[in-house]
Amino acid sequence: MADPPTDRGSTTGTPLWVKVFGVIALTLVVLFVILMLTGGHGPGRHSG
Amino acid sequence: MTPRLRKFALTAHVTFSVGWLGAVACTLALAVAGLTSRDAQTVRAAYLALELTGWFVLVPLSVASLVAGLVQALGTKWGLFRHYWVLAKLLMNVLATTVLLLYTQTLGSLADVAAETTLSRDDLDFLRTPSVVLHSGAALVLLLVATVLAVYKPRGMTPYGQRKQSEQRAASQP
């Protein structure tokens, strides 16, 4: 990781790629919670 | 950090991270073998190898990658919370390491069944779970995305980073 160039990241506002990452992460979290609530996922599921 | 130390820390972080990626690819191959093989001995061997790989390769490499990444971020001007790509990598690394540590319990259960002297039909059904394939596949995707972020370093500063940059500019002006 070299030192950042002075102009890198100087744009204001949230970049599009961050928004896309956020939507994907949120979707995965919701999916995970649904799976946990329905008993379809979790460490205990495999330990029987 | 001095330039020499920074180079060393970067080399360590890249080595641990890429090593972790390669180890996850091996895990995926073993998981596919465990899921699809018709040979009980192959299935047994796959899950025994998976537990060893988990404890002695994946966990050490994931923790080492996380620690080296923290050192690298905090020891350079990039910082840990200033750039979105660094923050995204941190979150992905913490998530992957946490899930991996929790998942060693599952790998242990699978290896315990695989180590039994005789495998019943139920034991084999228990071992032929898609869970390991899904988890290692997801880990592979996550680590590939982290690698892409590290190489491309997409633009974008967090509000905290922008504030810090403004403070530094104000402080450097006469």
Task: Describe this entry's structure for a reader.
The complex is a heterodimer of chains A (48) and B (174). Helix content of chain A is 46%, strand content 0%. Chain A is mostly helical and 48 residues long. Chain B is mainly alpha-helical. Helix content of chain B is 82%, strand content 0%. At the A-B interface, helix 1 of A face helix 1, helix 3 and helix 6 of B.
Taking all Cα atoms into account, the compactness measure Rg of chain A is 19 Å
Gap between N and C termini of chain A: 45 Å
Number of DSSP-assigned strands of chain A: 0
Q: Which structural category do the helix and sheet elements of chain A fall into?
A: mainly alpha
Largest sheet of chain B, in brief, is: none
% residues in beta strands of chain B: under 5%
**Could you tell me the radius of gyration of chain B in angstroms?**
20 Å
Termini Cα gap of chain B: 27 Å
SSE blueprint and pairings:
The complex is a heterodimer of chains A (48) and B (174).
Chain A lengths: L15 H22 L11
Chain B lengths: L2 H34 L3 H35 L9 H31 L6 H7 L3 H22 L6 H14 L2
Note the main attributes of this structure.
heterodimer; A: 48 residues; mainly alpha; 0% strand; B: 174 residues; 6 helices; elongated
Summarize the structure.
The complex is a heterodimer of chains A (48) and B (174). By secondary structure, chain A is mainly α. In chain A, 46% of the residues lie in helices and 0% in strands.
